[in-house]
Each structure stands twice: as C-alpha cells, then as structure tokens.
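Convert to structure. Protein one:
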Amino acid sequence: MSRSFTFPELKTERLTLRLPKMEDFAAFSEYQKSDRMTYVGGPVASAEQRYRKFSNLAGQWILRGFGPFIFERNDTGEPIGGGGLWFPATHPELEIGWAIWSADAEGQGYAFEGVSAARDHARTAFGLDALASFIDIDNERSIRLAEKLGAKKEETRVQEDWTYHVYRHPAFL
C-alpha cells in the first residue's frame, strides 16, 4: 500500500516557508553547535545528534502530516531558520515554535513574518486554534516575539530540568 502526501509551500513578502531539504543541514548544524541553542537544550556537539535533530524536522511531516517549515529568504535563497507545528512524542501537546539560525538574520522581523504565516496555515489547513508555544523562562527574545504575535502567558511548567512558560496564541479571528 502506498501513501500520498501533499506538502505545502508558503510565500510571504520576504520568505518562502518550505519543507527541510538536505542542503539546509549545514546552516542547521552550525546553529545547533552554537551558543544560540542556549534556551533549547544547549549546543549539540555530536554531528550524529545534529543530523538526528535535523531528520526529526522532516520526520514530523511524514509521521504527523505537518511540521516545522524552513524559513528561506526570497532574495538570497538562504535558509535562516524555521518554525511551525511541532509535536514530538515527548511533548505534552502540539506546539508552534520557531528558531532563527543565523545571528545576521535576527532582529529583522523574519521570525514574526514566518511564524505568522505558519500559524495562519495551521489554522486554515487543520482548523487548529489557541496553539501553545513553550518558551524557556529566560528567553526574553522569544517571549517578546510570542507577545508580539498576540500570545499570552498561561502558566509556567517544569519538565525534568527545564522550566518554561506556556504561551497561548489567541483564537483565530
């Protein structure tokens, strides 16, 4: 028996949101090795672990029918991060998350633009509403982005050695 999948590609003014491809691994891997990983588990030294994490991005699309998009700049074709639906087996619920891999791309509104498009897609394609984002309590940039997206802090949770806020995105208007 064969399965057929349709994978979306979204366009915004400055970004293309698409599925991961092998050419993205180098940029993803550099991000994973960096201090930019401070609030999401810390830098990943092992190339094998970085590859497994990268494969998980693509695997969500096959296993769940959705997953995080890669944010590719329209002007350069450079993959600068990603975001969208994320629901690994270890999560308590479906999350909408994001990461900007490149420090050069940070602070330019790419995360807001990409996550807004991914969130709108989740709402229209899957009827999902009131999505959650799990944000480390010390990650001030992601907290500001969640609030800019209209999300409100619902509660603070502790999971093993991680303390995080649950931000709830508003219902689709």
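Protein two, convert as well:
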Amino acid sequence: MLDKTSAYRRLYDTFAWNLPTRYNIGVDVADRWAAVDPDRPAIIADRPDGRAEILTYGQLAERSNRFANALHAHGVRAGDRVALMLGQGFEVAIAHVAIYKLGAVAMPLAALFGLDAIEYRLNDSASKALITDTAGLAKLAAIRDRLGALDLVISVDGAAGEALDFHALLPKGAADFMAVASTPDDPAMMIYTSGTTGAAKGALHGHQVLLGHMPGIDMPHEGMPRPGDTMWTPADW
C-alpha cells in the first residue's frame, strides 16, 4: 500500500514495485488478517430479511482451508483451472481464496453468460472443476456432454445430479491447510477477454496481479482503505 502521509510528488518520485520472493493471494487476503485479528469483519452480506450477516477473517481463513482440502481430496491440483460461475456471496470469496492457496487457477465466469460462451471458456481453458449454483447447473446441463475435461461440479445450492454440495464439503475438509509457496509469477487467475474481435482469449495472471492493482486502487480513491472504510461493488466477484 502507498504511504498515506506523503504528498503526490514524493510518492511519484519514490515509487517502486516491491515483489516478495514468495507471495500467495489467498494467504495475503485471509490468513494474514486471521493471524492478528480473527474477529475482524471481512465481508458483510445483506440478507433478504434485512439481517446483516458477517464473515470474519478467521472464518474466511478456516473455511477456505477446508475447501482447499476438499478440492484436493477430489483431485484438484496446482495448475488446474477451477471455474466459478456465481453471483456475490461468501462462497465466492471462500472459493477464490481456497483456489489460490491450493495453487490452482481461478477462472471467473459471468453468471449472465450464454451457453456458447460458457462452453467455449470451459473447454478452451480445460477447466477441471466448476463451482456454481442452481441457475448455473441448469445451463451446464445443456452442454455437459461436450465438456471433456470437466470432472468435478460443486453447487452452493446443494447437491443435484453430479453436483456436490459446497456446504457439505466444508466440514469434511481439515481446518488446517499448508498453502503452496507460490511466487509472484505463478499462475493464480485466468480472465477471458470479451471476444469482440475474434474468439475470446484467456489472460493468465500470476499472484502478483493483486499487488499490481493495489496502487491503482489506492491512489485515485484517496488512500482507500482507511480504518472504518466499507467497499461495495455491483460487479460479480
């Protein structure tokens, strides 16, 4: 993060990238906070009944460990692509963090994608696993026989057909997980281009993608985050 007490000219003149030898997004955004302040709120979800449900950093770290163990138990290994087709929710953050800790590659898919877009991206990336919901399963059913590499489907809305229940998997996984000792260049995330000029292309990002983005978030938002700040976005995670 940038020095929030410095003037712009000093920041500009002294800025330098600081990439550690080892860096893992999942450890940085969850375990680091859980170690010093496990009860600190990480995510707040507004429920339809008006309740505000909180996921703490301690819970995010533990549940992502459990899910990483569950994915590993079902054959997901470092470098495997794991697609996520979900709206916002605790499960999305837990899955992302677990995938990074495991050394696998997260591949977000827009929940509004049509069948052709989903089929192309899952096949082109050779995704081994898909985490989705009831709406995603309905789309998947129409193209399932054309997805050769996909052999694990998990639903946050419960087991259905071949899909395993996300919430039932968590308690089966151990609460401890040794995250891979990834480097900043090791693959972490694949995001596809829109495909407006030719076929969509998968852009592969290393774990350093988070460090690379932070100055561009910090500077134009006046030093965000500061103590007490809450961030909201309408976009899929």
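The chain has a mean pLDDT of 94. DSSP finds eight helices and nine strands in the chain.
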